[in-house]
What we know:
alpha+beta
Amino acid sequence: MKFLDVLRITENQPVFTAGMLISGDVDPKDVRRQLSRWKEAGKVIQLRRGVYALAREFRSSWPHPFVVANQLVKASYVSLQSALAWYGMIPEHVPATTSVTTQRPWSWDTPAGAFLYRHLKIPLFHSYRSTDVAPGSPARVATREKALIDLVHLTPGADTRAWLVELRLQDLGSLDLPALTELVRRSGSPKLERARRIIEELREDELRDDRRGRAPVGQGHPREHPGEEPR
């Protein structure tokens, strides 16, 4: 296989796997040897075993971290703080892209950024959708409501008013309350039900403050979406 073949195959793929190159009349061993050579030559960047991105001069932009996160672990979707920050629901910068997976927990520090995966049981792995996080770059991202539910579920003590206030939630008016209620009902979790009631109270507080013409205490402007090229 020649490098021009890789450029053709991965033309619309900011991140690609070795398996994408192994099709038709191609020797898998030859592809792996070539990938190793291209890595040494600086033509491709290895993100983890079997997952790659093209080097700067062979691509138009750096892949969005959500796209990379989906590729690093196939059975995953972006959730928790990363999804909440992307929706503008928390003001803090999130240094690692956080996802949930049905596989065991993982973490990677790659040239494309840091990636953290939390384990969810299969019955809780739902309520995500394919979203364009950059032009032509779809990624699996939890809904607003599921990202918040996942975070509460996976964090000890997250069903208290003090913890939820410390999270500095904002734009709570954008939450779909029936969807949030259904997620909690579906989970059957008393912890999530306690958190749901507090979240609805905080939402009412935020809406009341908005009507009075002032921002809720502790809330700032959401940061820009992640995905800029590392420098």
